[in-house]
Amino acid sequence: MNETSGQNNASNSPLEGLQTAPEIAALLRIHPVTLLRWAREGRIPHRRLGSRKIVFIPAEIADWLRSGAKLYTVSAVRAASTKESEAA
């Protein structure tokens, strides 16, 4: 076994891409507390490491953003549709 193959195995670790709430929150330009609330509510993809540690996989966050499916809460969607119907 050579050193190069050992380094490749380490760089392919599934734990390598994990990021914390402050790191992802900075990318999304939201407060980390908001991000953690969304995670607890199941609105954003995340992983739990133990009972209190929440981490995020950037590729899953990117897919979530691209999907746009769960970016807004039901109340926000309802409020937007109410404003549109009032304007009409």
From TrEMBL:
Describe the location of the Helix-turn-helix domain by residue ranges.
20-67
Q: Which Pfam families match?
A: HTH_17
What is the name attached to this protein's record?
Helix-turn-helix domain-containing protein
Its source organism is Terriglobus saanensis (strain ATCC BAA-1853 / DSM 23119 / SP1PR4)
